[in-house]
Write a structure and sequence with these properties.
- This protein has 405 residues and is an alpha+beta fold.
- The chain folds into three domains: 107 residues; 102 residues, no CATH class; 149 residues, no CATH class.
- The chain has seven helices and 14 strands.
- The protein has a seven-stranded antiparallel sheet with strand order 2-8-5-6-7-4-3.
- A hairpin with a 4-residue loop joins strand 6 and strand 7.
- The longest helix has 32 residues.
- The chain starts with a helix and ends in a 25-residue tail after the last helix.
- The C terminus is likely disordered.
Amino acid sequence: MAFEDMWFEISGEMAIPAPLAQTKLNEALGQIYDDGQQPMWSFQIREADNWLTPGLMFATGWPSDGGPRRPHRPRPHDHDHDHDHDHHHRLRHRFNDGLIHAEPFSPIIRGNKRARRAWKRLRGRPFMTEMQIRSPFFSLYNIIHWDPEEGTLLLDRPWMEPTELPRQFLGGIGPWPWPFDDSFDEDEEEDEHRHDRDFWQPFFIYQAYFPTPTADFKRFFEIKDTMNSGLIDYWSYSQRDLTDRDPQRIIFDLPAYAVFRGWDERGKGTEFESATLGHPLYELWPHPLSQMPYTFSSLRRGPMLEHPHDKVPAPLTEDMVKWKCREALYLFKESQRGETVQRGSGSDWKFLSQAAAAEYQAARDRIGKRDVAIVDLFFSRFLRNAADRNAPFATITGQLNIGGW
């Protein structure tokens, strides 16, 4: 039975408007999802979802001559100074994705010509709007829009980092030999921004924040590094812990922790809203700069009925939802009775509510017992391969964990 059939039946039976019937049906469904007598339903378990860290997608290449130089080996063409200089120039900037220019208090970042060329080469996923950008020394900013025509990135908040960074600040490596790299300034005349070579900024673009697959996500059962068969700790650290251990987020390695960051609000209220708006976001730490796959299983609340042809998830039945809905509507009807109603006239709504509750309970017990077996089957195949996995609380039963699941 589709959602529209259910609300037609309830609205006709109870003589209520269709929108009220739709609301009460979804409220009843939500109460079934959160039923305290049923720790979880089988359809709430997501057994295999994936994250793929894309790695360091774009970055300003560090000069190869930033540290002590290697001893020079004479070559046959060393007498050709120009050729020797061009050779070192190509080595120095071979993997460079350009520079960015940011204005304080502005959410717009502009790439120079080399950066724009690199960004335009990105095809498919990860989309630019799934990633974050940062100066290597400061905060991460979510990218909510990429304009290939203008060569600009729109951030989720204004840029609030130092922008005038002389080359001597960048790791103490001394001035970069920009006079020999005209490609960074090929578009000086067409830009309205300041183009002193000393005030372009290096940047990283990679993905550090990962949304859950559903907005009604409740908790993880496991996150596994499938490449190394390692487990990711999702229960120990908070954002406060990361702030203590790595306030600048300059530790890069294989992630060992997934830390809740908040809900995805990227682009909220703009025309560039995130496709996962409202989903929980998790930060992988240390930040991943290599491409690695991760597999996880999790618990969700359950889908609401939105479209006319939507159906309740199996093994739930329409009768269960309707009886739960009637229980609430009968009480609603009782609350609408006037004080002047003659004693004994009309329906006894409280009695009908109790009868509907009994019908729902009978259906829930019958279906719930079968579904518990499916849930038990899942966890019988859920192998634990680390003794210290999961804290001694917040287990699947919502109770204290003594010795295991």
